[in-house]
Amino acid sequence: HFLETQVSPDGSFRWLDTTKVPLHDASGKVMGVLGICEDVTERRKAERQLREERNLLRKLIDNIPHAIYVKDAQGRFLIANRLTAIIMGAKSPDELIGKTDFDFYPETAAREFRADEERIMASGEPLIQKDEPARLPDGRTLWILTTKLPLRDSQGRLAGIIGVGLDDTKRREEELRRRELEEQLRHSEKMKAIGHLAGGVAHDFNNQLAAIMGSAELIRETAGSSEAARHAETIVTACRRAADLTGKLLAFARRGRYQSVSVDMHSIVREVVALLERSIDKRIKIVQHLNAGSSVVRGDPAQLQSALLNLCINARDAIGHDGEIVISTEAAIIDEKASRRPGLDVKPGRYIAISVTDTGSGMDEETKKHIFEPFFTTKKEGEGTGMGLAAVYGAVKNHDGGITFTSEVGYGTKFTIWLPLADEAATERCPERPKPAAIPPATVLVVDDEDIVRTTLKVMLERLGCKVVACADGEEALELYRSSWREIQLVLLDMVMPRMSGADMFRAMKAVNPDVRAILVSGYSLAGEAQQALDNGAKGFLQKPCTMSSLSDAVARALSE
Q: In whole angstroms, what is the distance from residue 126 CA to residue 131 CA?
């Protein structure tokens, strides 16, 4: 019984399934051969075509960028392609044949997959696009969008399942990134809205404090050593504390940048460490690792020192009595992708990263969500205002930087400030300006839309020996100045007024008198239009609430220049 080939007279090629047996005579001697031939050419053609189709199917499923497999009713692999083998950690698809998920996956995962397949076999209903994790041998995790269909035999009976898995990892990563960006945007918008609110509240509050502190100082000076003077001093002290709080609100609102010079952050770190070593529990160890090769940034040294000091004080409070604070610096290059990380939101470029790491109690997830919001605190009542980290956040953003943190309950917290490096040397600290001489006789124009502030400033200036003219808005004051500028030696100008802003009025006064002497007054800190006015010739800036001493110094300097 064998296959043989034959060429027909017409030249065609035939396959014959041949059986040949010997023929014997009566004595048992072979006398011939009996041959039976069956033409199986068409069957051989069909078998060859089937093999070619099977090979083509194998090539097809191996090159499709999806996992494709067939399992029997017991979950054993009957067919699997190359990607299925890769996902399951097999060397080749052949290694899967006859085996189950339990031979490749942890038992918990394998049980879940098998349970899905048993439900399909029991119900005849497919499983459509279920996201399933698959951990590769190299440690990477893929997310597979799996569809499993019931497989039926020729009689229509359920005989197994057909599975198709789509690599969904990239889409999931993009979706996760989109959600992160949306959350980052929501957080940024929320912080911006809170900042506007905080800045407005601080400005209005400072206006009221200006009147209260000024009036209290006037009472204190006229009351001598009486009990009224002591009460007035209490009011002044309370106003200063309140002004410190509004200052932090303004820092959070990014309205508190006083100057812009080149600052060596390593010098700032050393100054902060020196302050800490004199003031915190000796059982708390302070460690410095200043590894940044370049450490010069552009900004306000007082704000930057305050921000770093606030982080260190927070670290001290989190530790309690025994632990370690590590202050470290590193140079960093932030690319386009890294610049969009949550908390950073900065421009790509060269940065210095200043980190404060503590061994304290750490933060839970709820605390992390609100950590930079004004007045949010986990401390007991009376132990903190909740403005420290809010002020840090505002100061860092005010310097075009970012702030990130990591924290785990029981293991401590690490805050990192990212500040853009400057291409210049640090500016030496300016020596303190000498106190001015006494105030010469002068007529001062006071412009402020708040009646109580205007009245208080008028009385304070009169106490300093000045003649005072007061106006409630910029338009009224400008009309007066145009007609009487020769008799007015100085203008005290509120920056925020309804009909004409202080900046607009200053420009208009300079058009009348290029040598106009003006001191800017604001419930906001020095920034924006106020800074521009100073750059254009204004003689000074007073932040409300101002004391009699600061007012006297500013007026004397302006009149003496």
A: 15
